[in-house]
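Design request, tokens follow.
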């Protein structure tokens, strides 16, 4: 992959090209997103606009993206970031475990030049538009349609928290059938993570249900945890506390040491068991 420190001089010849504005984009119109053309030198008014545009464009093309290699400025805001296809990388395993990581090389490098950039525009400095797999927008749309809408999330919160209808929500949430009285906490956690992932795409949330629609695996990383992971993941320690919580699930924690040798939590997961398959799901 091209370095994030790629020379930005080529942007001088393309800075006059029109900047795409999310305010002029109809978020509910996939046809408009399909018309978007990404190119090297393309500019955005903000990081949020850049991430929104690229993420939704990718969906119309038939793939999802992940965010990697974040470089921050002294004030904590973004300076550079790399956007990759979710099939990037290679999952190392000694078994024949299936994985979505198949070494796809598609990626975009984004940068906010510190000089000659009075409006703090974000530019595409690298666009490697080659995939190692077939693209299918229908599959992506199907996955998005399975997500719970914000309106339904608010209704779930009202029923489970305000009305104390945890048991009545069992067919919808079905988090842990043996502990129906604890469904309120589980529903709030699930709702909070989904809302967080919708509001900030830099976070990571992965959820798995069994055939009975029971929650069996839950993994999440906040945006701040993700940034710590990118900076200090040379050594990562994982520890599992087995079935000491009210849901009788295994709690998997990932920690690192920061530049001041402080222990920092960078990821967590709740697993229905400690089998090899469950741990492989976490690392995938």
């Amino acid at each position: 992959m091209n370095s994030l420190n790629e020379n930005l001089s080529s942007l001088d010849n393309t800075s006059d090209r029109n900047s795409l504005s999310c305010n002029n984009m109809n978020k509910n119109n996939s046809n408009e997103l399909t018309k978007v053309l990404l190119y090297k030198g393309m500019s955005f008014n903000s990081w949020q606009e850049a991430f929104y545009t690229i993420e939704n464009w990718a969906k119309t093309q038939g793939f999802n993206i992940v965010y990697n290699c974040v470089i921050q400025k002294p004030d904590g805001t973004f300076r550079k970031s790399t956007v990759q296809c979710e099939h990037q990388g290679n999952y190392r395993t000694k078994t024949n475990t299936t994985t979505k990581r198949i070494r796809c090389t598609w990626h975009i490098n984004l940068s906010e030049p510190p000089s000659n950039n009075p409006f703090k525009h974000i530019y595409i400095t690298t666009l490697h538009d080659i995939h190692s797999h077939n693209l299918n927008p229908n599959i992506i749309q199907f996955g998005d349609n399975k997500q719970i809408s914000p309106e339904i999330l608010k209704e779930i919160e009202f029923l489970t928290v305000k009305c104390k209808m945890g048991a009545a929500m069992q067919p919808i949430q079905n988090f842990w059938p043996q502990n129906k009285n604890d469904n309120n906490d589980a529903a709030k956690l699930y709702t909070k993570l989904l809302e967080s992932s919708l509001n900030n795409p830099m976070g990571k949330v992965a959820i798995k249900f069994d055939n009975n629609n029971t929650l069996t695996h839950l993994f999440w990383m906040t945006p701040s945890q993700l940034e710590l992971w990118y900076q200090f993941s040379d050594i990562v320690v994982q520890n599992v506390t087995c079935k000491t919580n009210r849901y009788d699930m295994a709690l998997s924690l990932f920690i690192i040491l920061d530049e001041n040798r402080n222990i920092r939590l960078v990821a967590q997961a709740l697993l229905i068991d400690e089998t090899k398959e469950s741990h492989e799901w976490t690392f995938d």
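Comment from the thread starter after seeing the answer: thanks! Helices lie at 30-35, 47-61, 137-145, 150-162, 183-199, 223-232, 276-283.
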